[in-house]
Each structure stands twice: as structure tokens, then as C-alpha cells.
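User: Could you check the structure of this?
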Amino acid sequence: MFQFVSPLDDLLRAFAPLFTRPTFLTFTTLVKGAILAHGRRTVTGIIRSAGDLATKSYPTYHRFLSAVKWSEWQAFKILLGLVISAVEGPVVLLIDDTTVRRWGPRVWGKGCHRDAVRSSKKNVVHCFGHKWVTLSVAVKFPFANRCWALPVGSFLYQSKKLCKGRYRTTYQLAKALVHRAVRCFPDREFIVVGDGGYNSCAFTSWCSDLGCEIISRLRVDSALYDEPPTRKPGQRGRPRKRGDRQPSFQEHFAGETAS
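Assistant: Sure, the predicted C-alpha cells are below.
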């Protein structure tokens, strides 16, 4: 009997080592249903959109996200490898945090966060929901004029009140994603791009030590400093938090214009 295998099946077969055979069939059905679904992609909506592809009971598909055990980091490595295979030259990693509105008393992990889309300099809007720190890869497709950001991994930010284990800030969650991406593919060159929330000296220095460049937004009147000097043996007093101040952007640009 002839069996048609679509390119999507070939792509999903890369994730087969993560699951058992029955669980892998559930995984492929959920992915295909999510592609066909319209509107909100709830599990029930995905199963209905899958149609005849969903041959199992509804609770089986719901338990996939709540009870099935599989390695998230291994899935991250497989997905990242598939995405960067379409990138020539340096891999541009986009790091950002986004707020997704969620309501209801039974929604776990929600908190009050700043809505960057609806907020402005004069008016700050807060909303209840989930705050995700997401790592994406910038990919250039021949049918588009701009690069597409393809998400490959994310972390749910949890406040100190909800966090049961070690509390981690958005910086620390971003570090975990970037560190794993660089360590999984040490032969590739990475460039990290973030907004003004990831332009701290600590994060920039950490990316430099990791061996990847970082591009972020700075104010024109930003004050830049060197790394704090190394303390000498027996030196007394509180250690310095920063070194000497660097020339401002205006002075730097004026020097280039004069030369």
C-alpha cells in the first residue's frame, strides 16, 4: 500500500528520539492540528482542527502537555539545529521578554507585569498574565524582504512568591537560553540582539566572555565605564563597582569627525 510522506513528516521525524512511538504519534497530531487551527490554539481547538488525524481520546492529548515526560533541552537543541541549518554565516539570536494576558483564578504562574505594547513614556499599562523570556533566530527567507524571528526556546518568568526553587530574574533566564545555544553549537558564530532591557554591563560582559557579540540599544547620553580594576593583595576598603569613565558618544563622534 502506498503511503504518502509529506515534508512536514520528514521535519517532525527529527523529534522522534524524544518520545515513544505512541507518544510521537500524539505529538505529530498536535503539531498538525496547531497549524490548521484558527483563532486561539487551545488543546481542544487543536484536536478539532486535526479532524480525522486525531484518532485518540481527548484526555490523551491533554495529558501530553501535563503528564508526558520528555527532555525540553534536547528538544531545544534539535529545533535550534533545524533552524540554524538554514542560516549562512553568523547566527543572530534575538532575546526578548513578552507578556501574554491570561485571566481566571485557576491560571498558574500569572502575575502583574508591564505591558510594553500598550505602555508609553507617559502612560504605563500593567496587565495580569504570563511573562515569557523568548529566544528566537533571525532567518532570511527568499519570499520576504525582512528577516523572520523563529522562536526556539522560552522560559516562564516566575515571581519570588510563586517560585518554589531558586528565583531567577529575566537576565538569568536569558543567560540560560543563550548559554545553551552557544554550547550546543560551538562551531557557529553567534550575535545576540536585545532591546534596552538587556544593555547592562554585566550582561554585555557575560556575552563577551562567552564568545559572542551583543547588539543592544543605548541612550545617546549614556554613561559608559570600564571594568572595575583588579584588587591588589591586602588592599583595604570597599571594592569598586566600575572603572574609569569612557568618553561619551558625542565626544567619540566628534573625534571621528575631526580625524
